[in-house]
Amino acid sequence: MATTALFSQQLLPVKGIVNARDLGGYEVEGGRHVRTGKLIRAAHLADATDADIASLVSMPVTLVVDFRTDVDLKGKANRDVPGARYVNLPVDASGNAAATASEEEIKKVTGRKKFEVKKVIMFAAFNEKAKTIAREMYPTLLFNPDCQQQFARFLRLVVEAEDGAVLYHCTQGKDRTGIASALLLAALGASRGTIIADFDATNKIYEKDVKKYSRRVRFWGGKEEEIAVVKAFLGCNTDNFINALDSVDQKYGSMEAYLKGPMGLTEEDIRVLRERYLI
């Protein structure tokens, strides 16, 4: 389980990369721990400073995996990390709700020029499509075949990444990145409690934004259903995440079965991951 002290240690000393955290330090089964400086979760790298990039190079980060879609990427292209391979594995967390939205709804929720969730949060909180996306986000990420395929590709990249550190991210480093972290931690033998704690730690990063925009939504008449949208888009809804994990157990029997099923991991893959990323 993540403690406040461990959370502080896991935060990368960077200024332009939000929610940048090292998975190192988590205890897993058998009393082993995740190696420090090997698995890094973060938000996008578009605003990284020169010092931030230098820090990533010194680790060294040799693989950057970006889960953002074309909509997310508008105006927010990553800065290059010299020496690192870049792989884009776009994951759409909006699922069928977005597919059935009108063009005008999509423009309002995503923004016409680039994705700026804070600018559209007031609209999104009272929009039925946005409510559906917020409610179904984690089941979509875990059960949608297209999402499963991309996360399976991600895990394969991590299995095959022999040297250096792997940095993986989405826009805010919370939902898609959070699911990726959960899968990695599960494969490494972390407890359900540790997986949940790592996912929930994002709410410490975005706590001020969530409180600020929740107050605004309440001022305009929003109730708990609308506040849930704010939490989903600006923070992460841990209760929904826990429910999604329970659904994995119900459908597949266990997270291990899920990893060996749609995620495509073998016993040898899991052995390789634990040998490389645990101490």
Summarize the structure.
This protein is of the alpha/beta class and 279 residues long. It contains 16 helices and 5 strands.
Plain-language structure description:
- The longest helix has 16 residues, at 128-143.
- It contains 16 helices and five strands.
- The model is unreliable at 96-103 and 108-115 (pLDDT under 50).
- It has helices at 4-10, 50-58, 70-73, 95-99, 103-110, 117-125, 128-143, 145-160, 176-187, 192-200, 202-205, 207-219, 224-234, 238-252, 255-260, 267-277, and strands spanning 21-22, 39-42, 61-66, 85-88, 165-169.
- The relative contact order is 0.16.
List the helices and strands and how they pair.
Elements: H1 4-10, E1 21-22, E2 39-42, H2 50-58, E3 61-66, H3 70-73, E4 85-88, H4 95-99, H5 103-110, H6 117-125, H7 128-143, H8 145-160, E5 165-169, H9 176-187, H10 192-200, H11 202-205, H12 207-219, H13 224-234, H14 238-252, H15 255-260, H16 267-277
Parallel strand pairs: 2-5, 3-4, 3-5
Antiparallel strand pairs: 1-2
What structural keywords apply?
single chain, 279 residues, alpha/beta, Protein-Tyrosine Phosphatase, Chain A, 5-stranded mixed β-sheet, 5 strands, globular
* CATH architecture classification name: Alpha-Beta Complex
Mean pLDDT: 89
Low-confidence stretches: 96-103, 108-115
Question: What share of residues is helical?
Answer: 55-70%
CATH superfamily: Protein tyrosine phosphatase superfamily
Number of strands: 5
Rounded radius of gyration (Å): 18 Å
| Strand arrangement, major sheet | 1-2-5-3-4
How many helix segments? 16
Tell me the span between the first and last alpha carbons.
17 Å
Overall tally of structural domains: 1
CATH class identity:
Alpha Beta
CA-based shape: globular
